[in-house]
């Protein structure tokens, strides 16, 4: 059984995030700092990656002052506490092949030093010594002590309510 480790190429990997509220949604990006994916006989068997929480960008707010204020709020203790916790991690705990290129992945997501299991489907394509992986992780922010304007913790928020789940659309490129 041939096992091969692939190093994640930060410059070719990213995460697109989407957060929703009653009145709409916001979206942006966050950088993948480093990591590895492991394949055995051409099949995904494990991996881990680190995200730079200080790199969060908002793409849908075009006014520079508003964008800067919003980015500061996402970096604050209401959300990611980026100064105290500049990194978040995901580590694969199990992989179940669904088809040749599709997998169901289970792992541990750590944000703000709080770890919870998450699972999601991902597609992986291999081309010589390069692999690409795409997956969407849905995260319940309240499990990571991000309670700001959550209906679970605050009443009568009306149209200021922010939904608990946010999406992380992960796009990783790694080389052997």
TrEMBL record:
It holds the Pfam family YceI. SUPFAM superfamilies: YceI-like (SSF101874). InterPro entries: Lipid/polyisoprenoid-bd_YceI, TTHA0802/YceI-like_sf. Residues 5-175 form the Lipid/polyisoprenoid-binding YceI-like domain. This is YceI family protein. It comes from Mucilaginibacter sabulilitoris. The lineage of its organism: Bacteria, Pseudomonadati, Bacteroidota, Sphingobacteriia, Sphingobacteriales.
């Amino acid at each position: 059984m041939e096992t091969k480790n692939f190093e994640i190429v930060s410059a070719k990997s990213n995460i697109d995030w989407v957060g929703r509220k009653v009145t709409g949604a916001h979206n942006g990006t966050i950088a993948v700092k480093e990591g590895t994916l492991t394949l055995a006989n051409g099949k995904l068997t494990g991996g881990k990656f680190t995200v730079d929480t200080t790199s969060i960008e908002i793409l849908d707010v075009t006014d520079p002052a508003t964008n800067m204020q919003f980015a500061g709020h996402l970096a604050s203790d209401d959300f990611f506490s980026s100064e105290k916790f500049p990194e978040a991690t995901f580590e694969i705990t199990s992989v179940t092949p669904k088809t040749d290129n599709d997998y169901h992945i289970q792992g541990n997501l750590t944000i703000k030093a709080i770890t919870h299991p998450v699972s999601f489907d991902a597609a992986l394509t291999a081309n010589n010594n390069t692999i690409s992986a795409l997956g969407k992780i849905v995260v319940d922010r309240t499990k990571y002590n991000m309670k700001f304007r959550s209906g679970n913790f605050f009443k009568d928020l009306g149209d200021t309510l922010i939904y608990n789940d946010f999406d992380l659309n992960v796009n990783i490129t790694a080389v052997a």
